[in-house]
Write a structure and sequence with these properties.
This is Transposase of ISAzba5, IS5 family IS427 group,ORFB. By secondary structure, the chain is α+β, with helices and mostly antiparallel strands. Helices cover 35% and strands 15% of the residues.
């Protein structure tokens, strides 16, 4: 315990000039070591209450490849940047209107794929979009429907983001890979 907490067993806590900690000790308090709050647990506030979004990448057959959790109020295009780092080599990538941003399109094109994302209604210049190819996006919607057949995923019983993400991974493994 002394190696883990250097301030335990060291006698009186030294307080010197320039020490502006709340209690003047060399270590943070126990509450500061763990991540707290709704933001750290991927819980967002919206009009419907507390919500969590699951962002996913899937292959053409609808099998999930990567997941990312965010709070419900977080914009999809901000989460796409982290999710696209795990994108496998592909020719075409579908996304819904929430992922329509210049940065997301640029990142997809840099990876060697063509983005097929419907433009938002308020855009002046509409990007190239094929409604015919977009029909295949129902594959990922069916994947989410299949994941949410499991009540634990649909209602998020877990308080911590790591436990919820573990449950999502277990359900995806059981539903698609076993």
């Amino acid at each position: 315990m002394g190696g883990y907490l250097p301030c335990v067993g060291s006698g009186r806590w030294p307080t010197g000039p320039g020490d502006d900690r709340l209690h003047g000790g060399p270590c943070p308090s126990f509450g500061e070591w763990r991540e707290r709050g709704e933001r750290a647990q991927a819980i967002g506030r919206s009009r419907g209450g507390r919500t969590t979004k699951i962002h996913a990448l899937s292959d053409p057959r609808g099998r999930p490849l990567a997941f990312l959790l965010t709070g419900g109020q977080v914009a999809d295009c901000t989460a796409a940047d982290r999710l696209l780092d795990r994108m496998p080599a592909t020719d075409l990538l579908h996304g819904d209107k929430g992922y329509d941003s210049a940065a997301v399109r640029r990142k997809i094109e840099e990876a060697g794929a063509a983005p097929n994302i419907p433009p938002r209604a308020n855009k002046r210049w509409k990007n190239c979009f094929s409604p015919y190819l977009y029909r295949n996006r129902n594959v990922i919607e069916r994947m989410f429907g299949r994941l949410k057949d499991f009540r634990r995923i649909a209602t998020r019983y877990d308080r911590s983001a790591t436990n919820f993400m573990a449950a999502v991974h277990i359900v995806a493994t059981v539903a698609y890979w076993l």
